[in-house]
Design brief:
The protein contains 28 helices and no strands. With 511 residues, it is mostly helical.
């Protein structure tokens, strides 16, 4: 697999050093021939049978392949697509995380498929007329449009396309979600389509009965310009779900230097108030925000904490960039990575894979939410993803609260693996902790509920007002035909059902 790259340990060195290290991490795993069964000769022959955007044959000599896989040279987009075809993967499965990696390291994704211009008109027609648009088609359409410095659509067509894409970003899971997210981010960062996508995001979030918030709010984290005022207002608003979903967006904008000086104090004051009271997944997002603050504002947040243990914990997390002490998280990540190797390769693995171990460690424990998300998506694009998911589900009942919530977060990225039944059991067990997370995981998965499971989830919604939102979401996405059973429980639920009727069920791509 090549020589492991040394990833930066220091949080502050992420932007400076991760370009090379992150590219190595991604490509060593996305092209793991030991798992996927491609020999070097097969790979070279397969790639050289393809053509680039100019119609010339791809060149894939051994030294060039080595440079691509170790991150010393950025591979052309045709090479990424070539890997997908050779490995029999759906279109865009590797391309989406590779582009996300480029974006996360401060480099605008470049390149467009050689035949992208040819199907552009047909893809636009599909997107506007309600035709079948899987994630791969959305990404190809966005890339083909964004390849031009400027493109022009009729105002109504641009708004309609953006509204459909944003809606599908919210109502998808797994690779179907990641592909549409990458398409939306591509259009959001292009001057010809940014306004339409922002309007679609605004229309979605300002619906008073909106039920799916986090996937759409997340799009704001990639927008430069004067959006920090909007982010602060969302954080200070009355809707707690919107406020919590905005925490990682604010952290991402801080990290990208997109928060003006006049709002830094507002964020620090808000963080100082929330540190003692927030828990669950929101706590990790808040810690990310705190650690992204400039030093003087971070120190102010620390001084505002009455508990000396909390002050020490904040200082330790900022210094180490990890949510859990170093020795403990390294041992756990090493064990999870080894189990994923064992299961995916179906044989005794060679020496432990340091790259996979690092990805697992970052996906679970890094304080930077961008890095957690990216590491999880990179693993999910490999054959290790489903195997790792099974073991991560087992971590969700860990008695250590922070570890359990981190595991649930990663489950939402990786899926359930072979542990779907375990997630169902947790969601229906009256005595199980984290039932809200388990119910949300049922909805944020591409595995539908059986009729008996749906009836049991509906019973949870009827009996427990505290779990009603999560149970309704699970049914709406994983068993929409079961929603009428919730009608009449209360006025809030009735409005939620009306919203789900307008928004539509989960969108699932064909395998």
């Amino acid at each position: 697999m090549g020589r492991p790259a040394r990833l930066p340990e220091d949080h502050s060195s992420w932007d400076a050093e991760v370009v090379d290290a992150g590219a190595r991490t991604g490509w060593l795993h996305l092209s793991n021939r030991a798992v996927l069964g491609l020999t070097r000769a097969d790979l070279r022959a397969g790639l050289e049978a393809m053509t680039d955007h100019a119609g010339a044959a791809l060149v894939a000599d051994p030294s060039r392949v080595s440079r691509w896989e170790t991150g010393r040279q950025q591979p052309p987009v045709e090479v990424t697509l070539g890997y997908e075809r050779l490995l029999g993967l759906p279109a865009g499965r590797l391309l989406a995380p590779v582009r996300a990696l480029q974006r996360a390291t401060g480099h605008a994704p470049t390149g467009v498929p050689a035949d992208a211009a040819q199907p552009l008109e047909g893809l636009l027609e599909r997107a506007l007329d309600g035709g079948a648009m899987d994630g791969g088609r959305w990404l190809r359409l966005a890339m083909a449009l964004a390849w031009h410095d400027r493109f022009f659509l009729r105002a109504g067509d641009a708004e309609e396309m953006a509204a459909r894409l944003v809606s599908e970003v919210a109502r998808t899971a797994g690779s179907a979600h990641h592909l549409r997210l990458e398409a939306a981010l591509t259009l959001l960062q292009h001057p010809s389509s940014q306004r339409s996508v922002l309007r679609a995001v605004g229309a979605w979030l300002t619906d008073p009965d909106v039920q799916l918030v986090t996937p759409v709010v997340a799009l704001l984290g990639s927008v430069g310009g004067d959006t920090d005022d909007l982010v602060v207002r969302l954080l200070q608003g009355q809707d707690s779900r919107v406020a919590e979903a905005t925490l990682p967006v604010a952290a991402a904008k801080l990290a990208a230097g997109q928060v003006g000086a006049r709002h830094l104090g507002d964020l620090a004051d808000l963080a100082a108030q929330l540190v003692p009271v927030l828990g669950g997944r929101a706590l990790a997002d808040l810690l990310d925000l705190v650690c992204q603050l400039p030093r003087e504002h971070f120190d102010r947040v620390v001084r505002a904490q009455r508990d000396g243990g909390v002050r020490d914990q904040l200082t330790q997390i900022r210094g180490s960039s990890t949510l859990i002490p170093d020795a403990a998280h390294r041992r756990l990540a090493r064990s999870l990575a080894w189990r994923a190797q064992w299961g995916a390769e179906d044989r005794e693995p060679p020496e432990p894979d340091q790259m996979l171990e690092r990805l697992v460690r970052e996906a679970l424990f890094h304080v930077d939410g961008r890095r957690r998300e990216l590491a999880g998506r990179l693993v999910a694009a490999t054959p290790y993803g489903p195997v790792l998911a099974t073991h991560v589900v087992a971590l969700t009942d860990d008695p250590r609260e922070l570890l359990a919530t981190r595991a649930w977060e990663l489950v939402h990225v990786l899926g359930h693996g072979d542990a779907h039944r375990s997630v169902v059991t947790r969601a229906l067990d009256d005595s199980a902790p984290h039932r809200t997370e388990a119910l949300l995981a049922l909805g944020l998965s591409d595995v539908p509920l059986t009729p008996s499971e749906a009836r049991a989830v509906a019973a949870v919604a009827a009996q427990s007002p505290d779990l009603r939102y999560a149970a309704t979401l699970a049914l709406a996405l994983a068993s929409p035909d079961s929603l009428p059973a919730l009608r009449g429980l209360d006025a809030v639920t009735d409005r939620a059902l009306d919203w789900w009727h307008r928004a539509g069920p989960q969108v699932v791509d064909p395998m």
